[in-house]
Amino acid sequence: MVKVATGFGSGGGWSEAVSWVLEAEKLGVEGVWTAEAWGFDAVTPLAYLAGKTETIKLGTSIMQAGTRTPALVAMTAMTLQSLSNGRFMLGLGNSGPQVIEGWHGVAFDRPLQRLREIVEIVRMACSGERVAYSGKVYQLPLPGGEGRALKASAPPTHVPIYLATLGPRSLEVTGEIADGWLASSFAADNSKLLLDALRRGAERASRDFETIERQAGGVVQFGDDLDQLIAPRKAGFAFEMGAMGSPQHNFYKDAYVMQGFGEAAARVQALWIERKRDEAAAAVPDELVINANLLGTEAMVRGRIRAYRDAGITSISVSPAGDSLTERLNTLGRFMNLVREVNAE
Q1: How buried is residue 105: exposed, middle or buried, by Cβ count under 10 Å (0-12/13-18/19+)?
Q2: 202 exposed, middle or buried (CB, 10 Å; 0-12, 13-18, 19+)?
Q3: How many CB atoms lie within 10 A of CB 262?
Q4: Do 123 and 44 meet the contact criterion of CB atoms below 8 Å apart?
Q5: Nearest in space to 292 (alpha carbons), one of 205, 227, 224, 233
Q6: Which candidate, 229, 287, 279, places its Cα nearest to that of 261?
Q7: What gap in Å lies between CA 174 and CA 177, rounded to an integer?
Q8: CA distance 308 to 330
Q9: Residue 6's pLDDT band (boundaries 50, 70, 90)?
Q10: Percentages of the chain per state (helix, strand, coil), in multiples of 5
Q11: How far is CA 223 from CA 49, 220, 228, 297, in A?
């Protein structure tokens, strides 16, 4: 059974964004997710949405790990879980050194260990345990000071924790400890290595892989001319491979390498670094754009839904194309009908 999620942002203004979520809720979309980079944060919009919606789940995709103390992450999660009557999902990810060090001024140090420890501390705090923790990154209370181990004054609550991870080791950790996985740079037809890493982590922790929610997706756009739908999407992939990281560390590019697009990814990155942006976009393979989105006729999009399902994805996160709210909602409605057809097979 494939579920559907979507995003919440202010691209067309907050009023339109809220209308989008309210209509998505009526159409049966299961969850809505907010992101943060170096503009709006991921938390505040969900607090607003909690009072506007009734059934749709609310998640951060992602809250940047390391930019808040683990205790603050836990406090925020408990607050949103209370405000939403149990609909909140905590999505965490490491981001990258360009943002963490450049924007936040926090060292991008031991990111995977930091992520693991944040998850452990958040679960302790949300469960009502007294938080005494001795990790490689975090020490609570801080040794040598006057701090004492505290219990959260908020009522205990369960908060599902999703991790946005890309590399083999971080995927294995996700399989070990997370309730769900938020995929990015995901090409459904080429994703076996990614899912295998998740499975290894789950097996190492003696977990049932099928209990881990797995979310991935892309743009949904209907049309008969596939070439016309592919071309506008290429610039976004070029930006991922060229700008979302340094020449030494680009986790998004590395994910495409894992999925068999290594030669193309290296060329796209090199052209981008040379500031040949149009050439970089042109070098993105059509196959990648098709595999990482849901484009074409209804029959083609139905086939892409099956591809995500067969790859092991439990929830497809979609960005419906359209020049207006009405067009985007029409696209989402058509997509939801196709999902129901596939689920009924």
Answers
A1: exposed
A2: buried
A3: 13
A4: no
A5: 233
A6: 287
A7: 5
A8: 22
A9: very high
A10: 50, 15, 35
A11: 32, 10, 8, 5
Contact 141, 132 (CB under 8 A): yes
Q: What is the mean pLDDT of residues 295-317?
A: 98
Strand partners, 17: none
Say which DSSP state 276 is in.
Answer: -
Return d(Cα 207, Cα 209) in angstroms, integer.
6
Neighbours of 65 (CB within 10 A): 24
Residues 295 and 223 sit within 8 Å (Cβ to Cβ): yes
pLDDT confidence band for 210 (50 / 70 / 90): very high
Residue 215: phi and psi, rounded to 5, are -115, 130
Asked if residues 184 and 250 have their Cβ atoms less than 8 Å apart, the reply is: no
The dihedral sign for the CA sequence 76, 82, 84, 89:
positive
Element of type H or E holding 255: helix 251-258
Question: In this model, does residue 12 exceed pLDDT 90?
Answer: no
**Superfamily of 3-224+294-344 according to CATH:** Luciferase-like domain (3.20.20.30)
Asked if 127 and 96 count as a contact pair (C-beta separation under 8 A), the reply is no
3 state DSSP class of 292: coil
β partners of residue 31: 5, 57
Pairing mode, strands 133-134 and 139-140: antiparallel
- The burial class, CB within 10 Å (0-12 / 13-18 / 19+), for 41 is middle
